Amino acid sequence: MESGFFNNIVLLDFAGNLQLTIGKSADNGLVVSILLRNESCGDSAKDLIPPLTLMGTAEELDEGFFAQIAKPVEQVSGLLVDMEAFLVQMEIAKKNSAMEKQQEEMKRKRREAKEKKYKEVMDKVDALEKEGKFRDAWTKLPDPAEFPEQAELIRKRKSELSTRFAPDLFGATASQVHNVSEQVEEESDPNDDADALVDDGFSDEEE
């Protein structure tokens, strides 16, 4: 006897495994339970989908079985596929979110490290300036290009420090040159020399 049962199964649109349970009812009829399982779906909610149950005589089921189950099987199959697709997208979203958080964390750490480096350098500059080592403080200032956000402040600080020293050919600062000049003037007072000459003159005439 040819019923075309399996040919009709092939024509059903579903993904997964179609489980059929067939039993006899008290009135000599049949009870057919159809459950579609899709193991590729990782959503546990799939276990809440109930089986489709049909009851009738053998003749009734022969005539209308596939017409009755075709649409529900297709819908359940689509639901399971959508559930899995949803889970996949959720996982992708989580990964992207984690990657974004990781990138933000890396940016934050780099920013904090840069701020720390800038502070350490500027603290050294401040210390050298307090010690009167203006040239050393000037050379310690970082390149403005290295700290774009502080570039204007660095340039201003360089300008201020450069006015505190005026480098000459011998590497001495203006204040050092000025101090040396004062010392020379103190050591060789022209008035003292004039007095000495006058004294020598009078001494010669008396002789």
Automatic annotation (TrEMBL):
Domain of life the protein comes from: Bacteria
Pfam families for this protein: PRTRC_E (PF19556)
Keywords: Coiled coil
Residue intervals passing through the bilayer: none
Compositional bias of kind Polar residues: 173-182
Coiled coil: 92-131
Compositional bias per record (Acidic residues), positions renumbered to this chain: 183-207
Stretches for region Disordered: 173-207
Cited InterPro entries: PRTRC_protein-E
Protein's recorded name: Prtrc system protein E
Organism per entry: Sphingobacterium deserti
Lineage: Bacteria, Pseudomonadati, Bacteroidota, Sphingobacteriia, Sphingobacteriales
